[in-house]
Write a structure and sequence with these properties.
single chain; alpha/beta; 6-stranded mixed sheet; globular
Length: about 625
Amino acid sequence: MRLRSLFVAGNMLPAALATAQTRNPAITHVEKGRLAIGNHQANHPLDGTPGRGIVSAIHRIELSQLSLRALGGGAAIVALAIVVFFFHLGIYGLWEPDEARYAEIAREMLQSHNFIVPYLNYVPYIEKPPLLYWLTTGSMGLFGVNEFAARLANAVAALIGVLATYLFALRTFDYRRALLSGAILTTSALYGLMAQVLTTDMLLTAAVSIALFAFFLQWREGGRWWLLSYSAMAAAVLTKGPVGAVLPLLAGAAFLGCECEWRGAIQRFHLVLGLTITAALSLPWFVAITIKEPSFLRFYVVGEHLRRFFEPRYSHGEPIYYYIPVMAAGLLPWSLAMPLVPWRALERNPARRFCLIAAATIFILFSFASAKLVPYILPAFPFVAIVTADGLMVFAAAANSRFTNEREPDPRRLALVSLVLMLAGIAVLVVASRAAQFNSPYPAIVRPVLCVSGVTVIGCAIISGAAFWTHRTEAGFGLLIGGAAATLMIMSYGRIMLEPTRSYAALARNIERLAPQARLICYPRFIESLPFYCRRRVILVGAKTELAYGAEHAGDGGRFFFTRVEDLVRLWEEPQSSVLVIDRGAFGKIRGLLGPYQVIAADSKKLALARGLPSNGAAERSAEQDGGK
């Protein structure tokens, strides 16, 4: 197992570095317990002594071995992330509403070549900046308009976030902690699941993480890390607006405050020039869209940020403690081990403090915001992953120590994690056995996935527990990583099974196949998938919801947006062929007003009624039976 071999190889790293440090000042102890590899120095204390050439050759060999080990660890982490994030990435249909919405915006951008104003259902949609749309548009240009292309940018952003976490931990901690940090982030439940869901949160997470990692390296090392930090901040702003700058600036300011290093910070971090770079990279789009949509600033700044942050009723209001259980569940299985780490016994480390402060800042900011959704907290995960890896490697160091020390933590304590996981696996099997008794249909639909997941978790728990109990700590970590990755991949089958209940992809594909030229009408709500899979505009009769701004500012909005049943009947009776996609509950109320129709597609929630299509007796009879359900 590649991860296992890398952990074993990591056991020799401290000794190799200690030997190299005595010979090469380019390898220096930045602080106890952490090593940094600098540029090789030609002039060092051994210059002028006999055997200088042999010593220099040894230095180069040792440094190349360290570099190869780091490269191998990075390759292993990237491979793990690719397997987890790309497994079944394009197999199932786009889920409503977010995935279908963002994919359709990118498709319309690709079709119109208008990269300034995003459009949804061919009317302006200005709730989000365009970076995710741009990337998804490029993906669709390369791979076609399909689910894989729609989700690719999000999965790549998750991969970049993992790689950035690994590289940062490698530079500020050591190889083994870097390897574990990347693996923890990859296999954390929420991060692994959201890597396959098309939203803006994963791209924001990658950009904010890079901005803050570069900020810390600028604080510690100087140089030109600030250029990367402010550039990543600009990408975050273009992903989700001002929050992309607020998060790095607040976290950085909090860290400097805790370190009492405010003096000279403006010059040290090139604040004026850096913010100018951020503005130069991000503001042109805001200026351009304001010119094209003069009401953009009022709608976007006031509605999408100020009201969303301060008004609980505006969007997704939740209690202030909302993200505590979200973090605990989202970091599984690793959150189970965090209470076992002797945090107070860990040696001081500014990199750990920085990660804690960054995670706490993000957590507090989103906790106090009125609008809350589960994925909003994702930017805290890379920092928590690093802190968790740093703490857990203390157990590995104790297991590998040749000397006993009563202060060293007992690795056997980690067997408690395996015990809890085993109980969790048993609970999953119990849920699967009683799936039919739940009010929700989901447990019954994914029952096979629950059974396989439960067995996988139990098996992983037993084997990893045995490894921890016998002081094979790194093997135990490798087993947890493999088990978590396998569980995430198994859960992707659940998404495939749940597609009929969470996606209208099959319904929309049937409509496109049977009525490729018909006019599309939705009642009483808009279905995001229809324009994506049918490749044409939809008439909405009902609440405009997220299309309200576009409907008001589109020149032809009066032809495509209606609210009354009378308007629906009038549209239906017009001579051109039409397809009405209607909720099953609403269908019974207006069925008598529609006259003759065919049911050309149906699922558990929707019916697709056609008028003016070529008739087919057999199909019409079976459709009528379906329509009467």
